[in-house]
Amino acid sequence: MYTVEPIGRIISPFKEKFATPRQPGLLTSVQSQIILNTNFSKNAVRDLDKFSHLWILFLFSECINKKKKELIRPPRLGGNKKTGVFATRSNFRPNNIGLSSVILNKVEINKNNVSIFVQGADLIDNTPIIDIKPYIKYSDSHEDAISGYAQEAPLRKKVFFFKNAWNKQIPKNHKELIQEILSYDPRPGYKRDDNKEYHVKILHYDIGFYVLKSEIFISKIILLI
Amino acid sequence: MYTVEPIGRIISPFKEKFATPRQPGLLTSVQSQIILNTNFSKNAVRDLDKFSHLWILFLFSECINKKKKELIRPPRLGGNKKTGVFATRSNFRPNNIGLSSVILNKVEINKNNVSIFVQGADLIDNTPIIDIKPYIKYSDSHEDAISGYAQEAPLRKKVFFFKNAWNKQIPKNHKELIQEILSYDPRPGYKRDDNKEYHVKILHYDIGFYVLKSEIFISKIILLI
Q: Where in this chain does the record put each TsaA-like domain (chains A, B) (predicted)?
């Protein structure tokens, strides 16, 4: 047995697992901020900005006390076929450690606070970060890799707003972010009733939407704060 | 604080940190075997063989009780320039977790024992493994990544055997493996005296070698068992 301590936390637009992307990099418009704990100084990130991409290791903190399973139903397989836990990136895994590659935007240092701004992270708001490593192209990029059931990125749906769903007080970049996130159809494979209103929290909004085949209709956006 | 338990161990030809490659994938001829703990059944690896590459998360177990540093001297920078720990893959890092992508060769199941045979791992023999994840090309492969001081793979040196250094009892594939490993010049950047005999343990051999500019000469191979 071995202990791990978070090195920081992430601030992200995803407030719940539902609608959080299933892999990193699908939503490059998603901006997140990693805030290192104050015991790390600017020295710990010296030269980090010489890399375009980073690896983030994090804890699936919501799953830590949940029962572990050897078989998982990946959403990509429609939610009814079981696959071994080590053949998935599922959050229900023996050591609850997640791995995501992200684009590095900038490193910001304010007195004792080190922030790392990244793009494309698939992490829920407030997720504990346990490591950051540089992405090294010659050893990490395998263009020829065969990736089983996840060889290609998931298909996207068109996203429309019902009349009045989009209030002009909502900034345009938030509207676009909501649209991009929902385009991947966040519904789990085993729970896909069309004609039902689904709800998801993104940023400080509660968003209602319907799915009809390959189109998604946003019915309401409720401001939560 | 959070606890992590190894899921298994790796059997590798690298017996010490010296001469262990600094990144995965440099030595594709290196074969290793991950043996899962017996509490994992064949279910845990179902469909894993549909992926060509895997991620291995492991513990830098030799560094767990060593002092943590915010600044590291990467060997690639000659060993005298300091870089932030999060801008390196150094084993001296806050949570001692390592990350390597490897080629998956085969999954073997023998009664209650699950073994995963991989190629290109840069892990020392007996390293505790804490997770295995599939490599997903569309989210992990970034051909356009800029990787600071490690943009290109390190240069390799030519490796020769002194007369009598190579005994015919040593199988040819071991000879080739030793040659390939030493071609990356395992000496740390700050300790590069030519004309000195260095020693390294690989497989069950103790190997003596000299470095002269861009050439390496193996002076002896001593069988350890």
A: 4-144
